[in-house]
Design brief:
mainly beta; elongated; 302 residues; 11% helix
Length: 302
């Protein structure tokens, strides 16, 4: 019996070794360029806006499931994008709205097992300041830089969003699984709702922030706000160097570490639950509300 097991182990090890040799030989032939494993055919396209009247497009709607999207600010609408052999892409203008729709038809038997090529082949969208941009679909991967917009909306099952140096009046995010990053942004009203949320905000000004989720990991650093309302069933909140007038943190399992830039005596602190910081009555209308069942909360000022 032991000899049989030894033979099986030797055979399995031999197969692994042979597989490794074949893999190394194949990758050497490709100069170890993993992108060449993607057999999908890609064709570069450009949206031609020359036939449109100036400022005819008043908004942009994107439903792009498999390509990352980069949005930047410019004088006029411009779009560089890709069509793929396993996707159907339709770009139209309807009722003065530029609509970009991609239907990714992945088939395990006919599609490439490796879609690495999409990581390099980004959709590049340029929009004039003030243009509303709306994302929808199953998957949204968006990187926006230097954008000024009245409203920006993300409604996707899975969303990966990065905003840098943007000025937005209203930011709305509805998602199941969401990773949001804001750096150097100014937002009047932000509403970010996701079942599983990973939110990071740095060096920004968010007048009003509303955030909720079942599982939320939120980090906010060196950011100013009038009102922050963060809620989650399982909440992990790290707020460092924030300036805020009204702060509300709520969670069934609440783990929070808060460092506020301000004068401690100005704040009223109201708590609900065990193992909370001391309550106090402030000298102004500034207020902090902490509410939870299972809590590990630290509250400090600098």
């Amino acid at each position: 019996m032991k000899k049989t097991w030894v033979k099986w182990l030797i055979g399995a090890a031999s197969l692994v070794l042979v597989g490794g040799i074949i893999f190394a030989a194949a990758m050497s032939a490709l100069n170890w360029d993993f992108y060449r494993l993607d057999t999908t055919e890609y064709e570069a396209k450009t949206f031609d806006a020359s036939a449109l009247e100036p400022n005819q497009i008043r908004a942009v709607e994107l439903n792009v499931d498999s390509f990352p999207v980069v949005v930047t600010s410019g004088d006029a609408i411009a779009l560089n994008y890709y069509e793929a052999s396993d996707s159907e892409v339709v770009v139209t203008v309807e009722d003065d709205v530029l609509k970009i729709n991609e239907k990714h038809d992945y088939n395990i038997f006919t599609s490439s097992w490796f879609n690495f090529g999409r990581l390099k082949k980004k959709y590049e969208l340029t929009v004039p300041d003030g243009t509303p941009v709306n994302f929808s679909g199953t998957n949204s991967s968006a990187n926006l830089s230097g954008i000024t917009a009245q409203k920006m909306t993300f409604k996707s099952t899975n969303a990966d969003i990065k905003l840098t140096d943007c000025n937005i009046e209203t930011l709305v995010v509805y998602s199941t699984n969401c990773d949001v990053e804001l750096n150097g942004c100014t937002v009047q009203n932000a509403e970010i709702m996701s079942t599983n949320l990973d939110l990071e905000i740095r060096n920004s000004r968010i007048e009003t922030l509303e955030s909720s989720g079942a599982n939320a990991d939120v980090e906010i650093h060196d950011t100013e706000s009038v009102s922050m309302n963060l809620r989650s069933t399982n909440a992990d909140f790290l707020l460092s160097g924030i300036t805020v007038d009204t702060l509300s943190l709520k969670g069934t399992n609440l783990d929070a570490n808060v460092l506020i830039r301000g004068i401690q005596s100005e704040y009223t602190v109201e708590t609900h639950g065990h193992d909370m910081p001391p309550v106090q009555t402030g000298t102004t209308d500034k207020k902090i509300t902490l509410r939870g069942t299972n809590n590990d909360v630290k509250l400090r000022w600098e």
